[in-house]
Amino acid sequence: MSDTQWPRYQVFVQEKPGEPYQDAGSVHAPDAEMALLNARDVFARRPSVSGMWVVPAGAIFSRTAQEIELQPLQTQDDGEETWYRVCAKERPAGTQTVLMRLKAASPAAALRLALDTYAGPSAPYAWWVFPESEITASREEDVESLYTPAEYKTFRLSSDFHTVTVMRSLGKGRRPDRVRLKEGAGGP
Amino acid sequence: MYGNSLEKVRTVEEDPERLREFEERIRRGEKIEPGDWMPAEYRRQLIRMISQHAHSEIVGMLPEGAWITRAPSLRRKLILLAKVQDEGGHGQYLYHAAETLGVTREEMIDALLSGKAKYSNVFNYPTLNYADVGVIGYLVDFAAILNQTMLARCSYGPYARAMVRICAEENFHKKQGQDLVIRMARGTPTQKAMVQDAINRWWWPTLMMFGPHDSDSPNSEVLIRWGIKTKTNDELRQAFLNQIVPELHALGLSVPDPDLRYDEESGNWIHGPIDWDHFWRVIKGHGPCNHERMQARRQAHEDGRWVREALAAYASRQGRNDAGNGGEGLAL
Lengths: 188, 332
Prior knowledge:
Order of helices and strands of chain A: EEHEEHEEHEEHHH
Strand order of the largest sheet of chain B: 1-2
Distance between the termini of chain B: 23 Å
Number of helices of chain B: 13
Mean pLDDT of chain A: 89
Oligomer: heterodimer
């Protein structure tokens, strides 16, 4: 019995209010609610996160630039239009970033529209499209309890350890027992 | 914490035109994304490396996790908890990256629990006291950072992105370890002796983490051509030595290698012979803790079963277990 293979949810993270949501990775969970909680443990251990979305991986229509070139998009459907979110990876080493919100009759039609209206500097390397209705978002009132505590855990930031300064003063020939360490909230 | 290229590269007949285009993209510095064409062997090597890397993170929680309840102060306990939690998170990032290549998480976990999959050899050694926490962070995690900084430039997009995230966090792991080693090195004679003893025990396993010498790594050439690796095992090992040896000396600590010498001409620290027979014995399951580590993983998997069942029951009662699977081919 496949007890480890729960559905996969793609996780999008917003670092600060007003910034775009970006792909962070994925989690497996039995439902979207648990997916949001798992996503918090996996992707919000450090500052800063102001919001998260989870989207079922199966609901994401994905095409790389290479795929679009080799196989034209099939967009002849004329069903009812709904809202879609469109993400793109704009730089070779970039991350999928939510760029657009638009109405279309299918994911392929939404992507066609996005390709036609995209005004960025160079053509994106890969696209994701998903219906807005598939998003489960963190709630405003949960942000403080879910994501804010990470901001106070400064001991998990490398900047909390002044080893570079210490090693530099040792390099100048000072004896290790004479170098003053900045004491954190407690010694060893 | 990474997978080595210990398995021979298989040659599969590929469409020469597509292969040429693929290698051209890599030369241009483009990242290969999940929907893109890639040679079967590129996919196979990546699945093997990434899943092995993920297993290493998960198994890597065990040696240090054992000391969480015995931390010498609350601050050290918070640091160690955070570090071990990070390793768990890194395992998740990596399983995710491997999944984009079409392998399922269940297959990977089964391979680990059945003993089929490998993980970094360095975790098959015991942690004897708290100085080991410092030395693992300082030496082992620094070795991992060198490898992972290279992999952050890997040609496969999802792996490279996971590595960027991991490297940032791994830097905390190294520095908390270095901080502890510095404090012990300038502490009481007993503390200094403890940290020296830990270095003596972890030194050789750490040097072995970089894998066999280039002359015994038949895969390196193709892995480098495909941009999976950009440096060889020996190049990484040399970078490690050149950074760490002077630091240990500055701290008044020694390296347990009687043949270690500084080569004026190249500016390199040259290590003595590595006991590769020992390395292979440990990889084949005869290290001091192989059995213990696998037992702990299997036990954890069994102990978590009721939680997985409870969550699945809750989801199905809420009628929300409808997300469906798939999505493997996402262009992440």
